[in-house]
Write a structure and sequence with these properties.
The structure is a single chain. This protein has 218 residues and is α/β, with parallel strands linked by helices. The chain has 6 helices and 9 strands. The chain has one domain: Rossmann fold (3-Layer(aba) Sandwich). The protein has a 7-stranded mixed sheet with strand order 5-4-3-6-7-9-8, sandwiched between helices. The protein is globular. The termini are far apart.
Length: 218
């Protein structure tokens, strides 16, 4: 017996209604398949390259001065360090604390310290290394600040300063907030560091200065 025409029409309507939006062939452009979105590029802050300047940080205590959104803080934690994240902005401190709670990171691995401007937030001989990735010229009373940072370092510790070169770059602060490498080295010299070296080749558009505390034999 041939199917009833009315029944076939009803079945077709039900099948059409059950289709979800977006089912079926994808749109094409000029007869070509639409390409997938490009994968995001790596973060330009290049935490792995920055951390390498400190050597093996596993088990070491690192002060992340001006921790900001916590990018370097959590990269250091992932590398096995204990981190003291220092910030003047309570909202940023709260955001770092929330992320740490979400990731199950306790106070044995991460401390957050809310400080006033000019206070590095670390005590004498408390840390193995200190990292400063903020705009250098925005730091007030830099000699006092970095003298206190120097005092916070254990023997063989180091301060790592990262900032933008004095050239046009795709990101970074305006030119008037870019500092000459020689100025940074000259300003860190009287703060007590035993050796200061610079590198302009490892990070695109930025320089790295390592101010070392090699310690003195007793």
């Amino acid at each position: 017996m041939k199917p009833n025409a009315s029944l076939l029409f009803a079945i077709s309507l039900i099948a059409f209604a059950s289709c979800k939006p977006g089912d079926g062939p994808k749109p094409v452009d000029g007869g070509q398949q639409v390409s997938k979105p490009a994968m995001p590029t790596a973060d330009w802050r290049m935490a792995d390259s920055v951390i390498k300047f400190m050597g093996d940080v596993e088990g070491r205590t690192i002060a992340d001065l001006f921790a900001g959104d916590g990018y370097y803080t959590f990269e250091l934690l992932d590398a096995g360090a204990r981190v003291i994240a220092v910030e003047t902005d309570p909202a940023l401190i709260s955001a770092i604390q929330a992320k740490a709670a979400e990731k199950g990171i306790g106070p044995d691995r991460l401390q957050t310290r809310l400080v006033t401007a000019g206070d590095p937030g670390v005590g004498s001989g408390e840390v193995d290394h200190a990292l400063c990735t903020t705009v250098y010229l925005n730091i007030s009373d830099r000699q006092s600040f970095f003298t206190r940072v120097h005092a916070s370092l254990k023997p063989s510790g180091q301060l790592v300063v990262v900032d933008f070169l004095q050239e046009q770059t795709p990101m970074g602060p305006p030119m008037e907030l870019r500092v000459a490498i020689d100025q940074v080295m000259d300003e860190l010299q009287p703060c007590g560091f035993s050796d200061i070296i610079s590198n302009t080749k490892k990070l695109p558009h930025r320089f790295v200065i390592q101010a070392l505390e090699l310690g003195q034999p007793e």
